[in-house]
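Re: export button greyed out
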Amino acid sequence: MSKALEQTKPRGAQVDRRSFLKAVGGGALALPWLACSGAKAPGGSVIVIGAGLSGITTALLLEERGIDVTVVEARDRVGGRVWTMDDVPGKPDAGGPVLGASYERLLKIAKALGAPIQPMKSFETSELVYVNGQSVIAADWASSAANKLQGGERQILPGLLVGYYTGQNLTLEDGYAWTAAKHADLDMPLDAFLRRQGASPEALRLMDVASNNNGLSTTSALWALREAQRRRDTKVRGMMESPGGNSRLPEKFAAAITGPIHKNSPVTKISSGQAGVEVACAGGAVYKADYCVITVPFSVLRGIAVDPPFEGAQKEAVEQVPYTAITQYFLLPKKPFWDEDRLPPMMWTDTPVERIFPQRDPDGRLMSLTCWIDGANAIRLDAMPEPDQIAFVLTELARIRPSTGGNLEVARIVSWAREPYSRGAYSNYLPGQVTRLKPVMAKPWHRLHFAGEHTAFTSPGMEGALESGERVTDELVARMSA
Ligand SMILES: Cc1cc2nc3c(=O)[nH]c(=O)nc-3n(C[C@H](O)[C@H](O)[C@H](O)COP(=O)(O)OP(=O)(O)OC[C@H]3O[C@@H](n4cnc5c(N)ncnc54)[C@H](O)[C@@H]3O)c2cc1C
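Workaround output, generated via the alternate export path:
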């Protein structure tokens, strides 16, 4: 079966592809940075749904293995949840801001394609902690009257408490262990686990504020323990950045794909038949191929018609795995309020505005700030009209930090839970779901295969997206070669 449409590729893309091949070893059979075997498939075609990092990587790897690829993308841009706010001063990243220096796959493919990545410059020397109605500099936290924590936890900044408790007596052996049946007893509510680890009521309250999930009681402890395992076992430390924003990475990767990338093409129906797959888009276009790789988050897939419909635990996963709600307010300072009150611009608070991250230019000048809110607070704000959200955020900030009053304006709001092609920032799991659902989430369904951050095992975030691309490529090449 052949692809529905042919495409032309600009010359720059061919140059990118040549340098990619050279850098990875000169040809399709030499991919030293991949876990896959490198064997070529005997031809065939695949539709990849989604041009996020996982979709783009899958397309690149499949092409390397001799497979025709068509990418279908709903948005007018590639990158998905990697999204630089190019119109906000300082170009903050709304999605995927932190590249770990341990992201081996990402760093190698970026190098191969000539996408620059450099160690992240950190200009923040301190943080303002606003807890129990008082402002405290991070260095003074342990001895502050605002600190109502108990015993050893008093030394730990609120934002580091989850890591402190999940890192103690960690029993997960390796990157796969969090999904192993032998650890099913840890597939319990995260708050109950943290309590068992010795967390005080105040520590539990603070950990529930900006937890990167939708709430400690509705999140599996295994979700957090996976992070702890990775932190423990990661040899390479540090953070990297892509100059000009992380969106430059998927843009560069996508330019090396030979097959077409159909943007502005939201998929509405995916059918898997005896002889191949059909993918129908909102605009009426229908694409056909031998197989399909679905990379869209399950939070989005649950709104796409799939034939034959999913069954059993996989159906439950598609319909029910939760995604973290995150809403961000990109703020422009009218004047340097941090000079006025002589406090650090970076903030961690136990209020509904949660966290503030400064965005600086390469010389360290503060260009904008991101108010980053997750979980229940984000869901509450998402339900309000935008002018009310803005008024709430600015009023709350002025209350806890008077120098911001009248000195901030909101340049942009991004609600990941409301983004129609994300429906949340990243997958997390209800208690019990890791053991029951994780092992079947990426299982091929007829001619449909799966990639995406939610299908990765050992790596989180962006690196997980690439891990999933590697795995699905191996899976398809083996199937197409059989
Ligand atoms: C706020 C936030 C903070 C994050 N922080 C970090 C971080 O610091 N470090 C880190 O490593 N990771 C971070 N992540 C996670 C990281 O961005 C993702 O794990 C990764 O980018 C996911 O890639 P993906 O390809 O799996 O999914 P996506 O990027 O979501 O790709 C899926 C693609 O499918 C497309 N799509 C959706 N629906 C359809 C449809 N109907 N038809 C066609 N196409 C469709 C989407 O537009 C998208 O391009 C963060 C994410 C968010 C949102």
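Confidence is low (pLDDT under 50) at residues 1-36. The button fix ships in the next patch.
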